[in-house]
User: Fold TRAP transporter large permease protein from Sulfitobacter guttiformis.
Amino acid sequence: MENYIPMMLLFVMFLLNIPVAFSLIASALVYFLFINNSLPIALVMQRFITSAESFPLLAIPFFIMVGSVMNYSGISRSLLGFADSLIGHKTGGLAHVNVLLSMLMGGISGSANADAAMQSKILAPEMIKRGYDLPFTAAVTAASSCISPVIPPGINLIIFALLANVSVHSMFIAGYVPAFLMALALMVTIAVIAKKRDYKPSRSEPASANERLKYFAKAIPALFIPFGVILGMRFGLFTPTEAGAVAVSLCALIGFFVYKELKVSDFSLILKETVQGTSTVMFIIIGALLFGYYMTLERIPHSIASALIDLTDSKFVLLLLINMLLLFVGMFIEGGAAMIILTPLLLPAVLNLGINPVHFGVIVIVNIMIGGVTPPFGSMMFTVCSILKVRILDFVREVIPLVLALLAVLLLLTYSEGLVMFLPGLL
Assistant:
């Protein structure tokens, strides 16, 4: 029983709201210092340090930097104009633009929190000015940001690929269909709500073909970034890690020479934001790898996998149980941390029943993104509510229909492996 003390201690520290990274490291050190002291502490600390010395992990700071460069380079505004020209004339037009912009931004920033913060500052004030309720605006902004990490080059796609030892390229390609379905479900739900509340479109009539062409031409450099990254990896021009550096370079060049909004002085702020974002993510990953070392020594993933397999030999029932577990855990733990902790525990059982790890990865990522907009600890919920000054209770009331739409997509993806694996299989 004492071998499970670090796990119990971990969840106690989560409930006490101690930062995830500190909770993981402290729990693991309790095991190595007091429960199993057969390993020299110097060896444990060496593993703690060397766990960060991974070439694929370099992709994380690069793609975090992409999001920062994009916000200073005018790429966001060009995509906003293009999205508005496409769908701004519909009832509830700006809310639809919010969702479409998340899809376009997702291929560049890959971060839900970055997308939520950006849209809260750029698009949400315009929605409020046009008569949209503040809580509804916040709910749409947070819910649409769930799409960003599912579209390449989402940071969670990279992290899952590393945890599950699957191809980053396959994870990237598998993200497109789920992201499209999430956007479609949100837009249908928004259309129903907008019609009921008579939210006006942002345009009195559809944009002309010439106007759409003009906005599209302006957005081409920005839209080229995700496609250039995917094609470069597809044809072996660079690795996923190098793709991050390529994406940063492309964003910077476009900001300097095409949109001419990026300045040399902006790079001090960009580097500051990148270091802050990378530090948070990497500290959690290192803590999780150390905690995973403890679980491996105690064969806890094997025990949990055996228990799940004994509980059911149906992969459909297993996936339902895993979804329920992830949704519950996602209510209390930040999504990325939940994925890092639970993936090594659940993956052996999933593989034993013949579930494709890429399909499972998409299920996990969509699931934890939904957790990001639900109380009590949803990270996108807190980001949007703090920027827009919205009460959590008001936000929750408005986000319920949007969360239900995303849950319907999650169920569809869970039981339609062919749908998720269609593009990876095609390529």
